[in-house]
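Exercise 7b. Backbone tokens:
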């Protein structure tokens, strides 16, 4: 108490509490703005709506992004039909280890329980992962923890929920949005929305598939060149952002339709970021996977460029090469002919989302799995190298504490070292049983893979994390810089928090003044209305009193007139002779 007068006021404040409170207030404001735009989204011009959406969008910093695929192929069977609730139990832990984004499963009603044969796109209560209310609750919980929610956008195809007159399943309805009148009919499509030549087409469509579009035989292929289709999808995706609460997009099966449409949908929905699944065939020969996969990664770059660089892409090139290298002890594969990493991250790291497995390649489907016993070797590569790393749910959540703790260590080293999405990679060695690289400029991380093992200069490097066939060091300078960076970040957050608190205080004072002003105005208005009502009441009473008096006077006059009339009649009747005494009237002549 004595020292309070000698201590600057801000030093008496718990900075962590201040930052936390300011962050909460910022999120509250963003939620209110999202709700406001949700109510008005069909009344606003799209350009104005997008400008407003930009104000609360938490745009991703690629250098700080670590994504988690938040499900596997069997997740729809878990949690008694509420997978969202299970994910919710992990949100706090995921935020602590550094996960910035969670890719959630397709959320619409689907013919297949996994969600990849969607039908009624607005019908979120028909999903096997949980209902709309549960999903919105999860996304809100994630936002409060600083984690963005990524929606799985499955729009290459759509299953009809009714048949046409010829028995084709090509009639689509907007079921699930009936409670919002302005949305009714938005997704009511028929055969005209399907590409010409498709087996579900009725011939009324406008366009055939694009030259490079892949075929998906299980469901009607949607014609994205159709303006009505485009507008419907844009409205639906904006609804996912504003009503449901998603922040980012993962586009499914993008080889089935033009990349330009992915770019357009991103521009018209303002996501925090987006990634596309472009799963193309890699080059093989009689000896197996070819060393040179330049065409594969170039095709991926061509797709990214065709989106206007609005979307990133999963780095299937790196996955294919990396799993072959660790499985067969062929670490020479991890260096291309130019001395760079051989995947998409070697040519376009800013748009490369690296991963080891997903619900298709791994999980119970295992179409193209990464070797289970080398998973940590794989993550020692992707979590230390350029690009945007993604982690599979099974590996982080289901594989036990040892794997989870080692993944935590690798994520921590990535954050502490400050590795950028486009960091320089200096590959020092790439042989059969050994890979050694230093990442960053100056080098911030040193990574050794393979059974041979390696060491590091203790004057420059410090132990980071290690396991079977992998070892990571962090430079002492980078670690010190990391501490300074974190301190600066904390200071910046403190200053921002102070500013936000002051702004909130000013806003609160303005609101209180406005409320007081409004209250005074309301009270004055009420008093004036009461005065007018009292005057009206008095005038009404006076009018009624005058009317009563006039009626009483009129009644008295009428009574008096009636009395006089009765008396006159009685007198007249009394003076009139009776019939028996009647005498004839005689007229005498006048006297002369």
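Sequence design result:
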């Amino acid at each position: 108490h004595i020292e309070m007068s000698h201590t600057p006021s801000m030093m008496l404040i718990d900075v962590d509490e201040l930052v936390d409170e300011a962050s909460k207030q910022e999120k509250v404001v963003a939620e209110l703005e999202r709700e406001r735009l949700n109510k008005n989204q069909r009344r606003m011009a799209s350009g104005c709506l997008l400008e407003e959406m930009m104000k609360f969008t938490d745009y991703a910093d690629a250098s700080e992004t670590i994504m988690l695929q938040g499900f596997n192929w069997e997740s729809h069977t878990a949690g008694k039909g509420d997978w969202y609730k299970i994910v919710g139990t992990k949100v706090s832990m995921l935020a602590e280890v550094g996960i910035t984004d969670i890719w959630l499963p397709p959320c619409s009603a689907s013919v297949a329980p996994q969600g990849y044969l969607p039908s009624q796109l607005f019908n979120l209560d028909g999903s096997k992962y949980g209902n709309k209310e549960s999903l919105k609750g999860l996304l809100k919980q994630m936002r409060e923890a600083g984690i963005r929610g990524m929606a799985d956008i499955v729009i290459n195809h759509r299953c009809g929920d009714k048949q046409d007159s010829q028995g084709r399943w090509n009639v689509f309805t907007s079921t699930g949005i009936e409670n919002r009148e302005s949305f009714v009919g938005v997704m009511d499509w028929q055969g005209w929305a399907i590409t010409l030549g498709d087996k579900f087409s009725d011939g009324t469509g406008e366009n055939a598939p694009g030259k490079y579009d892949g075929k998906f035989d299980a469901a009607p292929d949607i014609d994205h060149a159709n303006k009505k289709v485009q507008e419907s999808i844009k409205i639906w995706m904006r609804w996912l952002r504003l009503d449901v609460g998603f922040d980012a997009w993962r586009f499914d099966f993008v080889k089935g339709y033009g990349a330009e449409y992915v770019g357009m949908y991103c521009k018209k929905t303002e996501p925090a970021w987006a990634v596309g699944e472009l799963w193309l065939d890699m080059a093989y020969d009689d000896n197996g996977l070819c060393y040179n996969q330049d065409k594969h990664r170039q095709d991926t770059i061509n797709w990214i460029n065709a989106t206007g660089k609005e979307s990133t892409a999963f780095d299937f090139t790196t996955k294919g090469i990396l799993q072959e290298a660790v499985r067969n002890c062929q670490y020479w594969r991890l260096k291309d002919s130019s001395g760079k990493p051989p995947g998409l991250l070697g040519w376009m790291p800013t748009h490369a989302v690296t991963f080891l497995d997903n619900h298709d390649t791994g999980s119970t489907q295992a179409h193209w799995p990464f070797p289970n016993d080398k998973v940590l070797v794989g993550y020692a590569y992707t979590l230390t190298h350029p690009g945007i790393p993604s982690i599979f749910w099974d590996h982080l959540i289901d594989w036990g504490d040892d794997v989870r703790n080692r993944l935590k260590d690798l994520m921590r080293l990535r954050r502490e070292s400050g590795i950028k999405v486009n960091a320089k990679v200096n590959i020092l060695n790439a042989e059969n049983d050994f890979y050694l690289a230093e990442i960053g400029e100056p080098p911030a991380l040193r990574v050794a893979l393979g059974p041979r093992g390696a060491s590091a200069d203790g004057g420059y490097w410090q132990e980071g994390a290690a396991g079977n066939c992998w070892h990571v060091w962090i430079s002492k300078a980078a670690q010190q810089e990391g501490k300074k960076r974190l301190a600066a970040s904390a200071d910046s957050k403190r200053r921002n928090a102070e500013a936000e608190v002051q702004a909130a205080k000013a806003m609160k004072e303005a609101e209180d003044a406005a409320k007081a002003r409004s209250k005074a105005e309301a009270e004055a208005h009420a008093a004036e209305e009461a005065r007018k009502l009292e005057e009206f009441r008095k005038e009404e009473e006076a009018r009624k009193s005058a009317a009563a008096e006039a009626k009483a006077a009129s009644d008295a006059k009428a009574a008096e007139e009636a009395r006089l009339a009765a008396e006159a009649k009685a007198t007249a009747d009394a003076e009139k002779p009776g019939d028996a005494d009647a005498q004839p009237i005689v007229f005498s002549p006048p006297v002369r």
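Instructor comment: The longest strand covers residues 425-431. The longest helix spans residues 476-575.
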